[in-house]
Amino acid sequence: MNSPFLIAQISDLHLKADQKLTYGVVDCLGALRRAVDHLNASQPRPDIVVISGDLVDFGRPDEYAVLKRELARLHMPVYLVPGNHDDREQLLAGFTHHRYLPTDANAPLDWVVEDHPVRLIGLDSTRPGAHGGQVLDSQLRWLDEQLSRRPNVPTLLILHHPPFITGIGHMDRESFVNAAALEALVARHPQIERLLCGHLHRPMQRRFGGSLSCVCPGTSHQIVLDLEASAPAHFNLEPAGYLVHRWHPQYGLVTHNAVFGEYAGPYPFYDVHGLID
């Protein structure tokens, strides 16, 4: 297969039920609906969508019911990993039709999908009841085994928490547990093309174990870019965004930052006389 394969990544939906605004300000449901419409109308349309956590705001059954209804509108397969706002038990109860998900809510919701030109591995980085991320030693052993089985297949790791310090003070206060061990594992498996993360509500990138960790912006609100150690926990309503990862077997994986919404343009660079003056 020599045609491109497109993966759209969205993150941090923070859905509520009953049309309730998140933090009393943000219409996360309206934002997700606009995102779904945008992805469905994209030309070319993404082949799949991955969502890197914080699917809902408080992990409640009625919130997952809203999420299920809205994601059913997507015209392509969608794959989920939990974030620190999610509840494993309620997520599994609401998405029993997602057969790639495990069934034990008392263990991390790690999974593998082999159905596409790139291999997808979902890694549950949540610590129940905590804000920060982790991977357990048992998860690292599982991940090492999975990667060792297919060392030549391009692979994406999808997890909620970026396993590194970002410089945004309030988001760094709970460090990622076992980050160094995860980085050492990634370095042993060069087929890992990307680590796809969320949580930070901002686009950012960092080298990680010889691979690249890409953080996706939020579908609605974004965390303020404040690189002071004392940065307060604030957000703003910058343009909502997403990432598009374009895999081609000849040219590799290229990641594009994109935004949701309608903007002026497109305008041409050239007319019949050449470059427009």
TrEMBL record:
<dbReference type="InterPro" id="IPR042283">
    <property type="entry name" value="GpdQ_catalytic"/>
</dbReference>
<dbReference type="InterPro" id="IPR026575">
    <property type="entry name" value="GpdQ/CpdA-like"/>
</dbReference>
<comment type="similarity">
    <text>Belongs to the cyclic nucleotide phosphodiesterase class-III family.</text>
</comment>
<protein>
    <submittedName>
        <fullName>Phosphodiesterase</fullName>
    </submittedName>
</protein>
<keyword id="KW-0378">Hydrolase</keyword>
<dbReference type="InterPro" id="IPR004843">
    <property type="entry name" value="Calcineurin-like_PHP"/>
</dbReference>
<dbReference type="InterPro" id="IPR029052">
    <property type="entry name" value="Metallo-depent_PP-like"/>
</dbReference>
<feature type="domain" description="Calcineurin-like phosphoesterase">
    <location>
        <begin position="7"/>
        <end position="203"/>
    </location>
</feature>
<dbReference type="InterPro" id="IPR042281">
    <property type="entry name" value="GpdQ_beta-strand"/>
</dbReference>
<keyword id="KW-0408">Iron</keyword>
<dbReference type="InterPro" id="IPR050884">
    <property type="entry name" value="CNP_phosphodiesterase-III"/>
</dbReference>
<keyword id="KW-0479">Metal-binding</keyword>
<dbReference type="Pfam" id="PF00149">
    <property type="entry name" value="Metallophos"/>
</dbReference>
